[in-house]
Each structure stands twice: as C-alpha cells, then as structure tokens.
C-alpha cells in the first residue's frame, strides 16, 4: 500500500518552529551525504527582515508563494512578487525585507536549514535579551559559516537585471516540446554543479513518467493547475502548492489535469539542459540519425515524455 502522506506533502509538517517575526513548517529533512532536498515554508510578518549576510555552505532556492518582498543581492535590490524565485548560492551577500505578510518556500541543498533555525530559537528562548544571547548567536553563526554584513545603500534595479532572480513564467532557457514547455529556472552552475531546477508547463492530459531508475529522490512542486500522480498502482490528485516527494528508484508518473499544470522539478540531477539542447539539434538535422532514447540515457534523464 502506498503511503501517500509521505509523498504528497500538504500541511502536515514534520516540525514547526517559530521566531519573533517568522514561523517555519518543515516538510522534508536533508537527504543523503550531500544534504539535498530539504523543504520548508516560512511565514514572515510585514516589515520582517532577513539581515544582509553571506553563508559559507549550501544553496537555497527561495520561492515567494504569497505577499511581497524586496531582495538585496550584491548591493542591488528588486521587488519580488508571488511566483518569483531567487537562487542563493554560497558566499552570496543577500538580505530580504518583507513588505507584506508573506510566505516563502525554501528548498535547501548542502545545509541543514531547520537545525540552524532550531538552535537559534533555543538561544532566544533561553536568553530573552542581553550580551550572552548575542554572544551565543554569534558563536552559532560562526560555526555555520554565516557572516552578518553591514546593510548596503542598495541600488534599485529591475528583477531582470539580477541573474539570480527568476520571475514567474520566465526561464534562462525555454524549450517548447510536444505538450510541455520546459523552463530552466535554476542552472546547474548555480547549485554547485550538482543539479538543475526546471518548470514543466504541461498541457491538459500530458504525462511525464519515471521508470524508477533515479538513484536520488525527486522533489516536485505544483506551481499552477492540478495533476494526478501515480505510483505503486495507485493514483492521487494534487493541486497548486502541493509538494511531491518521490523516493530513490521509485517509479511514478505525473499527468496534468483538465486545465493543465505547471510543475517545478526542484532538484533535477540529470543534465537536462544538455539533453534538450542536443535533442533540439537532432530534430533540426534528422539525417543525423540521433535517437531520443540514446540522448536521454547519455544525460541520465529518467523522465519520459520530454520529446
């Protein structure tokens, strides 16, 4: 029997944490030696801030689900709207200011985000104020490679001027295929060369499937519309906002609903950009005799239906 509560992550958090101006719901723990695919939603009150800082370890994909926020990267600032995505790399100076009550979804790789927040909450609870709390927080930040920076007088720019920001509906590369449009939201070069993040805009009834050959987990988010996920001979409907956690070597299929669907593949370990570029070139030169299945195998792409 399929344990759907472990696959469709909707509201039932593994852990809930709260600070003075934020609340966190943790949905997945970091997986494996590389600590991939930790997922959490964080609610921020209006006017809350994440101070300008750098972090030595890990990568975070930050997707604004609701509200409005300003992000400052490298001394430049732009406004984020729901559906916009920011990729925070190691050693990148960044900070956030939430202009309204907001919710962000964070997908972290290479760092145990919840553990750091948990330790910070414990320090705040044990030491409500004073120099000792400040000293302990500073010790925590140093241990985790976090360095607080002086807030800059940021230059305001359009979000298109910041390559780390991916506006809703955009893509660094876009490939219109049969029944699905693939948008590269985060490049492999932004996640330490380990993965990519793709958004699949699927027409109604379009199916993407995985035969169960992927050695790592798959983490999808339903950005828009609805879909049906099938695994282990059972089916379940999913809707906008749902997270899907598929275990390593788990076979599954995803079929878009009547109005279509947009699915974010949060940690695509396959070299999908190279595969799509090579498949596009092969279609332009059919005399080459290149087969789609061969390209998929060469680029470790387990998803079927991208042709």
From TrEMBL:
CDD domains: cupin_RmlC-like. SUPFAM superfamilies: RmlC-like cupins. Residues 287-307 are annotated as: Disordered. Residues 298-307 have a biased composition (Polar residues). It comes from the Bacteria. This is Cupin domain-containing protein.
């Amino acid at each position: 029997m399929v344990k759907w509560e472990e696959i469709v992550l909707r509201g039932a958090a593994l852990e809930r944490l709260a600070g003075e101006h934020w609340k966190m719901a943790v949905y997945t723990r970091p997986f494996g030696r590389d600590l991939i695919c930790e997922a959490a939603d964080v609610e921020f009150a209006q006017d809350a801030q994440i101070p300008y800082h750098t972090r030595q370890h890990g990568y975070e994909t930050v997707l604004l689900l609701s509200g409005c926020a300003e992000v400052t990267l490298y001394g430049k600032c732009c406004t984020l709207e729901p559906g916009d995505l920011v990729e925070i790399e190691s050693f990148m100076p960044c900070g956030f200011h939430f202009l309204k009550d907001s919710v962000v979804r964070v997908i972290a790789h290479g760092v145990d985000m919840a553990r750091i927040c948990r330790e910070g909450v414990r320090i705040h609870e044990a030491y409500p104020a004073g120099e000792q709390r400040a000293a302990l927080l500073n010790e925590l930040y140093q241990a985790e490679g976090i360095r607080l920076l002086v807030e800059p007088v940021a230059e305001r720019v359009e979000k298109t001027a910041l390559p780390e920001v991916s506006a809703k509906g955009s893509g660094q590369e876009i490939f219109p295929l049969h029944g699905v449009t693939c948008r590269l939201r985060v490049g492999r070069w932004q996640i330490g060369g380990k993965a990519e993040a793709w958004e699949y805009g699927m027409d109604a009834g379009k199916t993407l499937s995985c035969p169960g050959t992927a050695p790592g987990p798959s983490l999808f988010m339903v950005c828009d519309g609805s879909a049906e996920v099938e695994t282990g001979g059972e089916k379940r409907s999913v809707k906008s906002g749902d997270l899907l956690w598929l275990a390593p070597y788990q076979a599954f299929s995803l079929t878009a609903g009547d109005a279509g669907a947009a699915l974010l593949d949060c940690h695509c370990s396959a070299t999908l950009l190279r595969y799509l570029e090579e498949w596009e070139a092969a279609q332009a030169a059919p005399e080459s005799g290149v087969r789609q299945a061969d390209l998929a195998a060469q680029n470790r792409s387990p998803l079927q239906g991208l042709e």
